[in-house]
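Reviewer 2 asked us to include a model.

Predict the structure of this chain.
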Amino acid sequence: MGKPVNTPKRTRREQAAATRERMIRAAIEVFTEAGYVGARMSDIATRAGVAVQTVYFTFHTKAELLQACFDHAVLGPDRLPPMEQPFIADLTTAASGGAALSAFVRGNTAILTRVAAIKEVAESAPHEPDAAAVVERTERLRREGLAQIVDLIAERWGLRSGVDAAEATDLLLMLSSSGPYLTLRRYGWSDEKYATWLAGTLTRDLLA
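Predicted model (structure tokens):
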């Protein structure tokens, strides 16, 4: 018989990070199933296999946990902010405006596959101030990022006549949001079909 393989023990920090990840994944499931109002911290704790005190110790409130779910979905597996993700490099080095928008759509669609469901949960509870604040913060950050993309496109390739940077940001924000994505997915559209449509629409509506 061979010698047993000794796997290195995880550090306390690694264990804490793994537990946090497990709680966030459990929260996304419970939020999606029960909605923001119906989700209970105790249910999330049970799903994650931890004591409810651990959930409260880590996130303090249900709103903070909702925000953590948003951030987890947006950052993706590489834990990178949107403006530091690889599609931004592809966008900035694109040879044409159409190619730049296609790069944006690829990256944005990847984010939507992770974030759309949890965003829908938050938006379904507008009467809950904490949930509404999470949506407001997330949309503000998203608008700031998209405004940077519009400025880059306007400088390098120009915007369509009659559309200024503010209007282009509005259009980009609306067309690339989770609402159209989820609606078309419910109609049976694949992510590929959605991305093709969005790239074409943005090219037509934004570029000179």
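The CA atoms of residues 35 and 77 lie 24 Å apart. The chain has a mean pLDDT of 93. We have added this to the supplementary material.
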